[in-house]
Amino acid sequence: MTAALDIQGVALRSDALIALRQIALNTRVEPTLTALPGGFATRRKGHGQEVADVREYISGDDMRHLDRGTTARTGTLHIRQFQEERDRISLLIADFRPAMLWGITRAFRSVAAAEALALIGWKNVHEGGRVGLLALTAGLPVFVPPRGRTRGMLDVIGGMMTAHQQALDDAMSGAADVPLDGALTGVERLVPTGAELIIASGFDMPGVGLGDRLAGLARRRVPHLLMVTDAEAGRLPQGRYPIRLPDGRQVHVDLNGAETQPEAESEVAGHMALLINAGASVQETARSIAAAFPSGRGT
Asked: Nearest Cα to 113, choosing from 296, 275, 292, 233?
């Protein structure tokens, strides 16, 4: 990697994505009504395996959950309480195609997409769900099977790091974009019916079949769209700017310098999408996500 690509906001940082756990779990806002799809049914899976607490024994408790260490230290019977697990699966779909590898202020749109998905992923595993990753690039995609707990999110972050580095290398070699509808082919085979699909993309080069592709996914799964933009692009000073198209051609566009007011939602191929501003701080992104994805929506 060249020095120009190995800087904050351009390259992904594993420590930064891991640190988003605290932001994801500590951000609290009042949920707002949005046009995004709502909750979905999940199945409870017994008592789970993660110990949530240890308390004194009460008549009728299952002795198989006896905590021998605490019982030996205190001389009083103590029982382990387990965190309940839910059969809730989320596939985080990160668009790292060449069109996502740009940004004007804080970060590339690809980096902002990874941050938004990490915020959602940390929250989901904390609530007992499982998360996986499908990272789209100009070459082969990177897939991480869904897993739960911290280990699952660390696997997802590792997959993001690998895919984003691959995407930067492909872009430097002049790789062309691929249509998004084709890149999403076969997603149904990666997760079971009832899973949620969280797609973070700029939705550049959507392909003529994206609307049908999303409608097909919505029949048996729950897609959520995050449209990653750079609001500062609409506030550039008046002038003539060179633009590189996905097919490699360069053109110039004239901007009149008029400011546009950022909105919270947009429509993509007939489906509503939550807008994520790549120039905003991760705290701002966390607040937007907390409002659109309230805790307990899968209960």
From this structure: 275
DSSP code for 44: B
3-state helix, strand, coil in the chain (%, to 5): 35, 25, 40
What distance in Å separates the CA atoms of residue 45 and residue 26, rounded to the nearest whole number? 26
Enter the CATH code of domain 14-41+85-292. 3.40.50
Sequence ranges of the domains in the chain: 14-41+85-292, 50-83
**Residues 79-125: pLDDT tens digits?**
887 655 456 899 999 999 999 998 888 999 999 999 999 999 999 99
Residue 184: φ, ψ to 5° = -90, 0
How far apart, in whole angstroms, are the C-alpha atoms of residue 24 and residue 116? Answer: 10
- Asked if 269 contacts 206 with a C-beta cutoff of 8 angstroms, the reply is yes
Beta bridge partners of 11: 8
Q: How far apart are the first and last CA of the chain?
A: 44
Alpha carbons 235 and 39: distance in angstroms, whole number? 36
Contact 276, 106 (CB under 8 A): no
Closest to 159 in 3D by CA, of 140, 138, 132: 132
**10's tokens:** 């351009």
Distance CA 154, CA 151 (A): 5
Summarised one tens digit per residue, pLDDT across range 227-269 is: 999 866 555 556 665 655 555 556 555 655 554 445 566 789 8
Angle ∠(37,210,90) on CA atoms, nearest 5: 40
- Among the listed residues 54, 172, 133, 128, the one whose alpha carbon sits nearest the alpha carbon of residue 296: 128
DSSP code per residue over 197-249:
EEEEE---S--TTHHHHHHHHHHHSEEEEEEEE-GGGGGPPSEEEEEE-TTS-
Comparing C-alpha atoms, which of 158, 63, 70, 56 is closest to residue 114? 158
pTM, entire model: 0.76
